[in-house]
Amino acid sequence: xxxxxxxxxxxxxxxxxxxxxxxxxxxxxEHDLELARAEAERDATLAxxxxxxxxxxxRGLGAVLAAKSSDDDGRRPPRFDLRLIQxxxxxxxxDLGWTTERFGHFDRFSIGYHGRGASKxxxxxxxxxxxxxxxxxxxxxxxxxxxxxxxxxxxxxAYEGSWQDHFRDIDPSCTLRSSRGGTSWDGHSLAWWxxxxxxxxxxxxxxxxxxxxxxxxxxxxxxxxxxxxxxASRWLNVQGYFNWKQQPPADRELTDVERRExxxxxxxxxxxxxxxxAFVKWAExxxxxxxxxxxxxxxxxxxxGEHGWSPASRYFQQAYFGDEGWTQPxxxxxxxxxxxxxxxxxxxxxxxxxxxxxxxxxxxxxxxxTGLGLRxxxxxxxxxxxxxxxxxxxxxxxxxxxSALLLREDLVREFLARENLAICWAVFGEKRVLGAGLMPExxxxxxMSGAYMLGDKGSVGFVKCMPDDLEMENPGSSPNPLATxxxx
Length: 488
Fold this sequence. Notes:
Layout (H helix, E strand, L loop, with lengths): L1 H22 L4 H24 L3 H16 L11 H14 L4 H11 L13 H20 L63 H5 L9 H4 E3 L6 E4 L1 E7 L13 E14 L3 H8 L14 E2 L11 H5 L22 E2 L1 E6 L12 E6 L1 H6 L3 E2 L6 E2 L5 E4 L12 E3 H11 L1 E14 L7 E14 L2 E10 L15 E4 L2
Parallel strand pairs: 5-7
Antiparallel strand pairs: 1-2, 2-12, 3-4, 4-6, 4-13, 7-8, 9-10, 10-11, 11-12, 13-14, 14-15, 15-16
């Protein structure tokens, strides 16, 4: 075995020699000789080792060496012989009752050919294959340890559930075929939680003058705290996206003409109550453009009804999946923050043919679900408090309007006072002109960046208006603003 170690060391020396040869072409011949000598020693050592191994052990050694040489230094875990699984699947299809007489004509002629896309009607034989596939995967999960692809640093672990991989193809807890609203490429529709209008599109010939105006912007504080028209209850919008677009003439498409637009993205965070002043002061000197602040995590492998309580929900509460918990932002932020929102993504064009189009629902983060004592209602993204009253919801699940997550303000204030916390918002946006065509010419633009805090009488804060700099050499730095708009 000492010869094996010597050869291995020779291999390493040879590799070092090759690396060095790339740096010093003058020593190429010397390195080639060293490499050849190391390879000869390795081959001799392997031959000596194989001469004393049994046939079974020799096959095992050959498999190890093959894996090491062809599979990223052998760090990937060994794989199953797929032929075993394929034979089981085929046997199980016939065992479940598939025959040519029963299903042959239907599977061949009644379904039609739809390519290899997932969202389509399937043959009876294919459905039997799915049954067999999930059976054999359950057997494997029960008897072997699990290593997630691209996460080898965590080592082998016990398999926790089907959310760890792409085995789920339908969410039985969610019956929504699509969402009713949400901000899209075409902008947003007005709604009670996004009632601010913008119609000041200016003189068509004065695009730069329109862009650089700072006194006609919608008031951000009116977007962050809103009143329900039915009962005057107050709601906080903790994840809002608003996009006002200039509409083209009735006989033209949106991209046929030069158009103007204005948008804001408002993201709320929990911070410790004593950190509010420090956060706002710090925000005065930075630019939130570039989306470098902690963002809400987005998950699609978890059932909607599992959020906030289940093992699957806890599994996705880690930085690898975008949930950074309490974290300190970049660019010298003096405080730690916690994202308030969480996004559940439902994708169309998959095996679940009950979804008409992809959509996203915004949910309260698990920490808020626990802290506010919420439970899911079973309807859309509606969450109820202990008394059964609506306490948090994404209104776009049921109505048209801008993307939002609304939390009942009185309940939030009680929670903040009890936990010695506060809510702040990081806001950024743009006022811009887009040229006609799918590859529009760039025009001047105005960037907005600001911060708000939930105060005793609503949200208070500021928005800085800055001319757009195409060459942002230092994202996060704040150029001199044209104006700073502060709430009353």
